[in-house]
Structure formats: structure tokens, C-alpha cells
């Protein structure tokens, strides 16, 4: 048995590996570039040496004795003929070369400076700041030194030629110094430079005349001070850069002498990492399991890119050794050394700028170590953070108003694929046998069973009957998903917590996931082709967590604004409006039909008797049946009237968006907070079904005639627009006569624009009002706008009255041609028509010019939303990444992973937004709640005390289990 | 010059006494470097605050009346 208990990671430390460590962990030294012999067996001490692990099934690992699958593979090593630089550390190597003495290797800082930087480093560590700031400053300080403070050696500049070559740059006297001095002494008549005699030069530079003559003859090389003096006197340059290449072996020797205490100041722990280890003398060879070879169809072996690269390295390494032993000239040795460096470099990173990538025979660049890790498809982003998972399904979503908001309709073909593991016991043995006997094709069937000895058997059509009889307690059965199973459901982009919620499964025919329309707002889903993902949970712990924490009803209140995010939408709202606005009457059949999909199966006493002597129920009566019996509420509603609910009876007001809608419908919000999530779920479910029944009872449809106004109204609108045009003309004339008075803080031009805009928008509103006068209150567009179901009066105005001014960047349309918007307008025409005022309505149709202006305004809207979504998405990602590791601790503080306190109390007040009242005046009636709870819930004082001690929450974890139609009329509070 | 620390929207910043500081640190079971930081040159700081001091900030809160926060003064 493998130990699968999770373990804590105590500590991770990063450092360099010592060559000796590479040798110790190596299973074998690799000396030959060949992989397999003629019989197809791996060659000893070759790149496929069997001690490096096994990939062929059936073979045994020569190091650990395990078989392929359980042997992880073992490293080997190559002894490099000459040291080479590790490309991953070129920057650090450069820094160390620049900051240490070329002679004695000590850090070029006085002891005092060194101690100061060490202290700074300690402080940065304590405050968890970036150590690089300190170490960079230390190197900068060290580079300023011309001479070593310890041995006095002159220090030279270090040049780094990417990727792995370093030079020492020395300023030396040029070899043609005498010619240059003589040339400069000649003077230049054209440039007006006079001749200089040796006497004058001697005088200027304070060098003896004999020395000057010696220098001029080239028999004496001027010292540095003399050189500088001559350079200054004659205004010439006598220096030359002498570059001296540093071989990796030189660098290694240099680094070996850096004392431990000097390295510490550079932020390196000398016990774990010595700088000379950045120069490789031994190269670890990854196990064969990390670079498996593939056997092609024709029986040929195809090796991994890494193996190809290792072959190159070994070949060059061998050639290097042979040439050196044969005493080859230095030039050839250096060439081979560079080649070895190139192969080791590209083995680690094949995408280095300035270096041609190593290529396959086909010309494809090789994928080496760094390429396996980097980028979107790399190990980190591709395989570790973003792996694809089993037990998940994705398909198109479609609506199903008969489902509860907690449920999801799952296609049967998905249910048959995504199994749940059943641990068979005596109590579920019969069920388990039934699933197995159904086989893998019939729906509540099973796909696999696992015997107590661990053998996994596939259930087939043929063996299912036999297998079912063998199933006993202790077996495991992978049964199909059935109604009531819990799954996780998700729609991308997952921008908030409610984008991933748990649902209970209802298995259904056809191919789409089905959801209740009230969960569209949290997922931001619609049914124009949206797809969603489902994940089947695979252990009891996960299923319990999902049920308790993630179920849709538990997400009813949004942590963003503390109010309900789930509620009635669109047609539900229109339906409730129709049901309650004029409080219509229903006979018994009609009332029962409205309530047929709810728990209500008995009507209350009728409100009254109609003219024919038959009893009737009002819309209020029907709606009140859904409310908790003791609910009391009073607030100003959507339509502007006062909504009054007393003892669970709606007495006054219209039920619409602000009452039962998403994003803070008052009644839904109150029920969730006062009566609990379960009661709220039942209420929302019932409101939506009642509303659907109501809207079907009244009939609700919309057509082009509903936005058409009579001819006389159109005439009035035309008059209004004509008036507005006249007034705009007057404004323009006044402007042209210079009679227009500018508004405070505005230029005359701006004033004119503002006044025109005002005039025109008033004209549009007037047109809208005229149109509105001709719409009855039962006009469907009006109903939708008034109830808040969809659309606004502005939409109606634009459909029936006039579309109005089109704007780009908040101004009338001003772009296009020179001094005009379209080619056929007069230049500088300021009229309404020439700047995008649309007089027509959508119903009457736009002229081509109007259409063009409308498209301009519309495009701006599209561009804006595109830019906004990408900008805000990026901002959100960065916020999430920055805050993702913050965690609220049991002591109420919010801390990051290094235990630094971010907030002393969660949110500075220690409260959850969904657990507090967020009403406008914050006036929650505590007395009412307290007395109601205490008085109504308990008959005796003893019971009350018992309650005040501890109150167990009623568990209601599966909606599937509780038959909500058969339940009592009232649901007890669970919150 | 405007003294920002006297503005009504700037909450009260006081230097914490050493023994009260010990209580705070033990209450949260932290070192002083685990506290949030404030720069020495922050204009809201009282004049006597020095690097290494811990500042107690008492903010008005809509939900809890007062919210207390501690910060370590750094360079
Ligand atoms: Mg869509
Ligand atoms: Zn092995
Ligand atoms: Zn030195």
C-alpha cells in the first residue's frame, strides 16, 4: 500500500549543485554517444543505459529493480572535458566578475562597506523586501573601485558578449603612439591648428625634452601619466582597448578563491551554493523516463530531442579529449571548447537571442529543457496549473422552467459516461446489483466494478447479469449518474464565486444541459449558444462540501453587494406585474391553475363573490399563498406605489422587479435573510412558476403594431421636430450675427453646441411623450418597461417617436470630410440634420444619411465595450493574483502566506456582507425579529432556554430527497 | 503649508508604547516585522515617530464605529 496521507512541506531551499553531488546521484557515467546495438539492446554506459531507468514494459530497472511505471528513472552524468558556463547564470557570473578582484578574488569593498551591506541585507530579509536591490547596490559600489582595497591590483572592465563569453577590457597605449604624436605635432592649417615643436611639447607636458625625443622616435613607451599629459596637450587619443577573453576555466579559478564571507554580502548562502559551481565540469544526464524514445510503425526508433542534444554533447566532448591528448594547436582546442559550450547551452535553453537554435535534421528547432517549462504549453502553465481533468462534460445549455433552481438537467448520454463510485455495503447491495445487472447501456447502469482484491472489471452487455450476482459488500461499483447526485457546474469566464455552483442532477433525454432561467444572472448565461462545463465529484468529502457550501441556494446572496443575485427575471417579472398590477380576479379553476406548479394544493377562503354568485380570488390572494405566513414588509415598489405585506398577505402594491427581481428584489432578499436559503429557494422557484402560469393566462406577445402610433400623433411629432429645427436655425443665425451670449466658462462655439444639443434632446423627449400618450398601459412594451422586465421608455421612444441625436465621444457627429460630415453638405453647415440628428423612429425607418450616422454612434459603443472587457479582465486577473493567497485566520486577521498581517479584522469590521442588513438606513428591526422568534417558536420558558444554549440547524441537504410538493404549507426557518 | 495630519479625514496616528506593543504582538502572535508598514516620511505620522516604532491608527468605521490598525514605521 502506498501512503497517500497529505504531508506538510516544511521548507524548500534553492541553491546550486556541487559537481560531486552530480556524481553521487548518478547511476552511471555516460561515455558513448551510441544508444542501441545492432540487436536493439541498449549499450552500457550509453545514453539509454538500463541503469537510467526503464521505459519498455516487462523490463527490470538495473538500479532499483522496479518495472516501468513504478521506476521514476535515475540520473547519469557526463564528465566534461573542459568546464563550460551554465547559461542560466550568465548575469550572476557577470556581476561576480565585475564585483571581485581579478587577482585575489575578494569583493571590492572595504570591510566597513561590506558590513554595512550585510546589515542592509539582514534588514531587507526581515522586512521581506527584494534582496536584489541591496546586492545590486553592493556590486555597483564595488565596480567603482579602480584598485583592489586588499592587494592593490588594478581592476579592469568586464565585457559580456551574450550569451556566454566574457572579456577583460584594458586601456593600453596604442602601438602607433609615435606616429600619432608626430602627426598631431604637424598641425593642420585648414583647421587652424598650429604646429607644435618638441620644445613646446616638453614645456606643456612637463616632460624632459630628451624623453620627448625618445618617445617621438618610438624607443620609449610613455608611462600612464605622461600619456595622459600628451593626450591633453595635443588633443589626441593614444589609448587602445585590449580585450582578453576569459575562458570558463579561468572564471572557475577566479570564483574558487572568493571567500565565503564575501559571497554572503551578495545574498548567496555559501554553504549551499559556491559560485564556481555555476561553471559546469560535470553534466547530469536526465533519466530515460524524461526522454523516452518512440518506436515508429516501421520498427525504427525515434529519439527524444533531449537525447539528440546529449549525443551532440558526448561527441564533441570526445573529440575535445582526443585532440587535447594528441596535442592539437590551441586554435583548434578553442574552437572545440566553443562548440562544447554551444551544445551545453542549447541543451538547457534553445531560444537564446544571438545564438542560432540547434535544429533537427528536418529544420525544426529542438525542444530542450527550458522549452519544456516555458510558456503557455509549458510544464507550469500547460501541465500543472492548467491541466485537463477527467469526469467533466461540456455542452450547450438550454432553459427548463420546470426544474428547481438547484437542479441541472443532464443528458442521459452524459450520465452514462460520468460515473459515481458506490462502496457496496449490505444496505445498498440490492441497488448495486440492480445497477450492474442493467449493464453499461441501459440508464441507471454501471460501467465498472472493483473486487475487494483490487481487480477492476468492465461491465459489458454480456457479463452484466452474471457479474451482478457476484457483487457483494466490499465491492466498488462505478454506477451511472442518477437523479439527486451532486455535480459542479461552471460557465466561463469565472469572474466571481457564483460562476461555479453545485447542482443536483436530473437525468434527461437529448443533448443539452438544462437550467432554470433564474440562475442565468449569476452565471451571466443566455441561451444563444452558450456552453457550460460540468464536473462529477469523486469522493464523499467533495460531495459533502459541494452540497453544504456550493449549492445554488447557498449562493443566493452575492458577497459583492449583500443582496440576492438570484431572483425572477424577464417574463417572470412581466407575469408578476400582470398578476398583481390591477389585482385581477380569478375563478376557482383559474386560481388553482395558476398555483398548480407550487406546493399549494388548497385555496384559501375566497376574497368575495362576483355578480353571478361565484367565489373569486384576486391576484394578491394567489401571490400571498407563496409568502411565509408571518412576513411583514413595507417599502416603495418598482411602479412607485407603496408595497404592503402584512402577516404574509399582500395588501397593496404591484409585484415587479424591485420586489422579486435579481440583484436585490426586496421580498426575495428579506426571505433569504429572515427565513433562510431553503425558504428563499422555494419562494423563487414558486414565483417563477406562478409567473409563467400568469403570463400564459393573460397572454403576452409583442409585434410591430404595438410600436406604431396613429397618423395624428405622427403629425404632432413632426411638428415638434419642425419646431426644434427652427429653434436650432435661430440659434445658428444668432451665432452668425455674433449675438449669442456664451455660458460661463464656455466659448461661443461650445455654447452653441450645448444649446443645440439641449434643444434637440428636448425635442426627442417631446416626441417620445407624444408617442407614449398613445400607448395604453397594457401595451406589452410599456408593461415590460414599467415592471422592469426588459427595456425602458427610452427604447419605446426611439421605436415610436424619434431616434434622436447620434453622438461620438459625447458630441454631435463632427467628423468625416473637410468642414462637413458628408460630402453633400455645405461646408460649416451647423444644422441638426448635418450633424447626426435622426428624426425618424425605428418603426418609420431611417434615411440613408441617418442610418450612416447611427452606425457611427453604434460603432463607438461596440469599440467601448470591447476595450472595457479586455481592460477590466486584465485588471481583475492581476487583482486576483495579488490577493489569491490572502486568508482569513481563525483569530479574525487576514494574512498572507508569510503570516504578514494585511487586515487586523476581516474587512476591518469582521462581518460578511451577506450576513448583515444592507438597507438604506441600516434599520433592521431587531426587536421585531427577536420577539417573533422567541414568542412564536417556543411554548415554554424551558424550550426557550434550550434554544438559547445551542440551536441545531435543520438539515435539508438534498432537494431530491425532500418532496417539495408533499411538504407542509409552511417551511420552518433554517437560518 | 497644510498639515495633513490635522485634516479631518486623516485618522488619528499615535506611537504605541513599548509594553502595549508587546501585548499587541502577543495577541496576534507575530513579530513586529509582520505588521503592515508605513513610511517614515508619511505626512500623517506624528513628529516623534521614528523608524522601528509601531503606530496605532484609529479609523472611523461605518460598520464598527472604530477600526484599529497597527503599522511599523520603516525607512
Ligand atoms: Mg450568450
Ligand atoms: Zn529504477
Ligand atoms: Zn585583490
TrEMBL record, chain A:
Cofactor note: Binds at least 2 Zn(2+) per subunit.
Gene3D superfamilies the record matches: 1.10.132.30, 2.40.40.20, 6.10.250.2940, 6.20.50.80, RNA polymerase ii, RNA polymerase II, clamp domain, RNA polymerase Rpb1, domain 3
Region (Disordered): 940-975
Keyword DNA repair in record: no
Required cofactor(s): Mg(2+); Zn(2+)
Location in the cell: Cytoplasm
Domain RNA polymerase N-terminal residue range list: 276-580
Annotated residues for binding of Zn(2+) 1: 61, 64, 71, 74
Matches recorded under Pfam families: RNA_pol_Rpb1_1, RNA_pol_Rpb1_2, RNA_pol_Rpb1_3, RNA_pol_Rpb1_4, RNA_pol_Rpb1_5
Binding site for Mg(2+): 526, 528, 530
Keyword Nuclease appears in the UniProt entry: no
EC number: 2.7.7.6
GO BP: DNA-templated transcription
Principal localisation: cytoplasm
Residues bound to Zn(2+) 2: 101, 104, 148, 151
Keywords of this entry: Coiled coil, Cytoplasm, DNA-binding, DNA-directed RNA polymerase, Magnesium, Metal-binding, Nucleotidyltransferase, Transcription, Transferase, Zinc
Gene Ontology CC terms, in alphabetical order: cytoplasm; DNA-directed RNA polymerase complex
HAMAP family assigned: RNApol_arch_Rpo1N
Similarity remark: Belongs to the RNA polymerase beta' chain family.
PANTHER family per the UniProt record, alphabetical: DNA-DIRECTED RNA POLYMERASE, DNA-DIRECTED RNA POLYMERASE III SUBUNIT RPC1
Protein name: DNA-directed RNA polymerase subunit Rpo1N
Organism ancestry: Archaea, Methanobacteriati, Methanobacteriota, Stenosarchaea group, Halobacteria
Protein's gene: rpo1N
UniProtKB/TrEMBL annotation, chain B:
Domain RNA polymerase subunit H/Rpb5 C-terminal, chain residue ranges per copy: 2-73
Catalytic activity: RNA(n) + a ribonucleoside 5'-triphosphate = RNA(n+1) + diphosphate
Gene3D superfamilies linked to this entry: RPB5-like RNA polymerase subunit (3.90.940.20)
Domain of life: Archaea
MF annotations from Gene Ontology: DNA binding; DNA-directed RNA polymerase activity
GO cellular component: cytoplasm; DNA-directed RNA polymerase complex
UniProt-listed GO biological process terms: transcription by RNA polymerase II; transcription elongation by RNA polymerase I; tRNA transcription by RNA polymerase III
The keyword Protease is annotated on this UniProt entry: no
NCBIfam families: PRK09570.1 (NF007129)
Family: Belongs to the archaeal Rpo5/eukaryotic RPB5 RNA polymerase subunit family.
Protein's name in the database: DNA-directed RNA polymerase subunit Rpo5
UniProt source species: Natrinema limicola JCM 13563
Amino acid at each position: 500500500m502506498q501512503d497517500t496521507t497529505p504531508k506538510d512541506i516544511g521548507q524548500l531551499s534553492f541553491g546550486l549543485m556541487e559537481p560531486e553531488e552530480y556524481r553521487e546521484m548518478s547511476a552511471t557515467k555516460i561515455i558513448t554517444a551510441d544508444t542501441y546495438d545492432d540487436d536493439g539492446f541498449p549499450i552500457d554506459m550509453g545514453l539509454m543505459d538500463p541503469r537510467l531507468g526503464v521505459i519498455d514494459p516487462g523490463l527490470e530497472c538495473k538500479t532499483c529493480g522496479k518495472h516501468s511505471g513504478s521506476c521514476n528513472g535515475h540520473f547519469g552524468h557526463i564528465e566534461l572535458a573542459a568546464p563550460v558556463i551554465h547559461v542560466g547564470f550568465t548575469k550572476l557570473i557577470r556581476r561576480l566578475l565585475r564585483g571581485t578582484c581579478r587577482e585575489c578574488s575578494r569583493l571590492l569593498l572595504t570591510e566597513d562597506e561590506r558590513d554595512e551591506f550585510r546589515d542592509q541585507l539582514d534588514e531587507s530579509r526581515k522586512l521581506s523586501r527584494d534582496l536584489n536591490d541591496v546586492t545590486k547596490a553592493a556590486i555597483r559600489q564595488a565596480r567603482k573601485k579602480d584598485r583592489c582595497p586588499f592587494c592593490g591590483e588594478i581592476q579592469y572592465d568586464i565585457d559580456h558578449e551574450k550569451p556566454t563569453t566574457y572579456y577583460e577590457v584594458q586601456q593600453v597605449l596604442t602601438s602607433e603612439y609615435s606616429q600619432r604624436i608626430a602627426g598631431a605635432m604637424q598641425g593642420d592649417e585648414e583647421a587652424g591648428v598650429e604646429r607644435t615643436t618638441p620644445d613646446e611639447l616638453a614645456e606643456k607636458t612637463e616632460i624632459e625634452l630628451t624623453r620627448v625625443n625618445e618617445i617621438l622616435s618610438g624607443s620609449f613607451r610613455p608611462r600612464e601619466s605622461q600619456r595622459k599629459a600628451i593626450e591633453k596637450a595635443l588633443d589626441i587619443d593614444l589609448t587602445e582597448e585590449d580585450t582578453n577573453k576569459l575562458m570558463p576555466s579561468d572564471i572557475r579559478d577566479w570564483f574558487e578563491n572568493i571567500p565565503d564571507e564575501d559571497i554572503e554580502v551578495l545574498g548567496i548562502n555559501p554553504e549551499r551554493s559556491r559560485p564556481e559551481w555555476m561553471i559546469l565540469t560535470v553534466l547530469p544526464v536526465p533519466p530515460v523516463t524524461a526522454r523516452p524514445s518512440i518506436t515508429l510503425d516501421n520498427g525504427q526508433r525515434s529519439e527524444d530531442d533531449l537525447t539528440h542534444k546529449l549525443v551532440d554533447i558526448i561527441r564533441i566532448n570526445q573529440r575535445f579529449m582526443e585532440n587535447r591528448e594528441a596535442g592539437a594547436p590551441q586554435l583548434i582546442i578553442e574552437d572545440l571548447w566553443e562548440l562544447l559550450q554551444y551544445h551545453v547551452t542549447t541543451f538547457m535553453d534553445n531560444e537564446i537571442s544571438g545564438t542560432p537554435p540547434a535544429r533537427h535534421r528536418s529544420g525544426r528547432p529542438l525542444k530542450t529543457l527550458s522549452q519544456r517549462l516555458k510558456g503557455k504549453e509549458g510544464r507550469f502553465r500547460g501541465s500543472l496549473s492548467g491541466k485537463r481533468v477527467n469526469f467533466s462534460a461540456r455542452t450547450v445549455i438550454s432553459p427548463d422552467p420546470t426544474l428547481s433552481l438547484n437542479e441541472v438537467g443532464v443528458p442521459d448520454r452524459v450520465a452514462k459516461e460520468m460515473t459515481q463510485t458506490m462502496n457496496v455495503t449490505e444496505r445498498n447491495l440490492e441497488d448495486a446489483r440492480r445497477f450492474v445487472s442493467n449493464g453499461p447501456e441501459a440508464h441507471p447502469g454501471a460501467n465498472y466494478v472493483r473486487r475487494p482484491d483490487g481487480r477492476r472489471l468492465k461491465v459489458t452487455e454480456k457479463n452484466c447479469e452474471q457479474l451482478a450476482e457476484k457483487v457483494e459488500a466490499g465491492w466498488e461499483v462505478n454506477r451511472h449518474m442518477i437523479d439527486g447526485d451532486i455535480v459542479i457546474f461552471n460557465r466561463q469566464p469565472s469572474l466571481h464565486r457564483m460562476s461555479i455552483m453545485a447542482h443536483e442532477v436530473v437525468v434527461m433525454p437529448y443533448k443539452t444541459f438544462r437550467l432554470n432561467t433564474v440562475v442565468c444572472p449569476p452565471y451571466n448565461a443566455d441561451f444563444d449558444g452558450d456552453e457550460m462545463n460540468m464536473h462529477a465529484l469523486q469522493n464523499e468529502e467533495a460531495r459533502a462540501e459541494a452540497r453544504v457550501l456550493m449549492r445554488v441556494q447557498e449562493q443566493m446572496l452575492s458577497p459583492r453587494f449583500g443582496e440576492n443575485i438570484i431572483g425572477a427575471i424577464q417574463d417572470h417579472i412581466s407575469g408578476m406585474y400582470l398578476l398583481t398590477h390591477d389585482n385581477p380576479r380569478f375563478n376557482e379553476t383559474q386560481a388553482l391553475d395558476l398555483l398548480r406548479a407550487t406546493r399549494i394544493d388548497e385555496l384559501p377562503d375566497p376574497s368575495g363573490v362576483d355578480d353571478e354568485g361565484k367565489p373569486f380570488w384576486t391576484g394578491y390572494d394567489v401571490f400571498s399563498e407563496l409568502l411565509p405566513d408571518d412576513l411583514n414588509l413595507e417599502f416603495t415598489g418598482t411602479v412607485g406605489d407603496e408595497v404592503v405585506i402584512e402577516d404574509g398577505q399582500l395588501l397593496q402594491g404591484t409585484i415587479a422587479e424591485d420586489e422579486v427581481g435579481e440583484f436585490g428584489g426586496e421580498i426575495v432578499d428579506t426571505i433569504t435573510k429572515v427565513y433562510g436559503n431553503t425558504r428563499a429557494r422555494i419562494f423563487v422557484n414558486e414565483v417563477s412558476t406562478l409567473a409563467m402560469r400568469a403570463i400564459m393566462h393573460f397572454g403576452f406577445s409583442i409585434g410591430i403594431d404595438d410600436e406604431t402610433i396613429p397618423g395624428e400623433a405622427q403629425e404632432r411629432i413632426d411638428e415638434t421636430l419642425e419646431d426644434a429645427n427652427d429653434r436650432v436655425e435661430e440659434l445658428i443665425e444668432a451665432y452668425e450675427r455674433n449675438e449669442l451670449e456664451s455660458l460661463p466658462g464656455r466659448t461661443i462655439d461650445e455654447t452653441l453646441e450645448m444649446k443645440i444639443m439641449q434643444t434637440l434632446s428636448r425635442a426627442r423627449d417631446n416626441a417620445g411623450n407624444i408617442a407614449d400618450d398613445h400607448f395604453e398601459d397594457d401595451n406589452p412594451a410599456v408593461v415590460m418597461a414599467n415592471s422592469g422586465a426588459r427595456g425602458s421608455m427610452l427604447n419605446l421612444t426611439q421605436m415610436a417617436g424619434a431616434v434622436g441625436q447620434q453622438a461620438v465621444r459625447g458630441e454631435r457627429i463632427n467628423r468625416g470630410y473637410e468642414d462637413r460630415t458628408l460630402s453633400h453638405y455645405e461646408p460649416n453647415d451647423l444644422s441638426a440634420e448635418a450633424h447626426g440628428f435622426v428624426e425618424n423612429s425605428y418603426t418609420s425607418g431611417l434615411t440613408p444619411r441617418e442610418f450612416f450616422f447611427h452606425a457611427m454612434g453604434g460603432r463607438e459603443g461596440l469599440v467601448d465595450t470591447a476595450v472595457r472587457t479586455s481592460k477590466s479582465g486584465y485588471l481583475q486577473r492581476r487583482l486576483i493574483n495579488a490577493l489569491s493567497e490572502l486568508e482569513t485566520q481563525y483569530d479574525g486577521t487576514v494574512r498572507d502566506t508569510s503570516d504578514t498581517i494585511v487586515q487586523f479584522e476581516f474587512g476591518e469590521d469582521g462581518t460578511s456582507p451577506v450576513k448583515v442588513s444592507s438597507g438604506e438606513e441600516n434599520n433592521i428591526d431587531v426587536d421585531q425579529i427577536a420577539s417573533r422568534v422567541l414568542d412564536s417558536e417556543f411554548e415554554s420558558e424551558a424550550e426557550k432556554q434550550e434554544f438559547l444554549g445551542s440551536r441545531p440547524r435543520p438539515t435539508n441537504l438534498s432537494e431530491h430527497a425532500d418532496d417539495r410538493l408533499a411538504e407542509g404549507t409552511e417551511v420552518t426557518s433554517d437560518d | 503649508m497644510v498639515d495633513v495630519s490635522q485634516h479631518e479625514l486623516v485618522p488619528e496616528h499615535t506611537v504605541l508604547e513599548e509594553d502595549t506593543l508587546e501585548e499587541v504582538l502577543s495577541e496576534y502572535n507575530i513579530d513586529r516585522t509582520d505588521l503592515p508598514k508605513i513610511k517614515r516620511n508619511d505626512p500623517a505620522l506624528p513628529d516623534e515617530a521614528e523608524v522601528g516604532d509601531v503606530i496605532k491608527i484609529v479609523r472611523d468605521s461605518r460598520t464598527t464605529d472604530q477600526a484599529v490598525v497597527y503599522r511599523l514605521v520603516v525607512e
